[in-house]
Amino acid sequence: MTMLLLDDGPVAPDAAVSRTGGVPTAPAGTVWPVCRLCAGPLQFLAQIVLGDTAPAGPGVLALFMCAHRPGRCEQWSPTAGGNLALLLPAGDLVSVPAPDADADVLGLGAVRAAVPVPAAPDGTAPDGRPVLGSLGGEPDWLQDDETPDCPGCARPMAYAAGLREGPEPTTAMNFGSGRAYAHACAPCGRAALLWQC
Ligand SMILES: [Zn+2]
Ligand SMILES: [Zn+2]
Q1: Peptide bond before 58: cis, by omega within 30 degrees of 0?
Q2: Which ligand is closest in space to the CA of residue 153?
């Protein structure tokens, strides 16, 4: 069953829940990731908590994308390096320090909790709250099926979660008015992010 991730209101920037915006949390010592194309620090988009029964769970997905050169760092690609998805172990995660005082990490303008709720039979939110994404189920591809292969074992990765741009244009992530898809391979500890519009 597809669970929608619904906007559950403002939350602390480092809250240990599924959320969009705020600061990434990761094992101590994790360095803020950079774009492989322009070398700028990636924008942190969201963390998604994957429960014990999730295809790639348990764990936490941390999702990043380059916001320095919109459309020019192949931000849509699961392999080019203009975005990053990390599959982290659940627990013992701490805030990742910004790369340095002058670095502009271009954080989203708002931090919103994303609570999983079963979708209504027609796939919409049962209570009208804004949809921030989805958890498990099948990817709602806007274009062709682009399930990525795992860079570790070369097998197709399991679909883990989807992201929407969010209800607030001034604070939203930029998927070209499209949707993002996060996949993971639990045995290899790898994850991938791509988007379509
Ligand atoms: Zn870049
Ligand atoms: Zn793998």
Answers
A1: yes
A2: 2
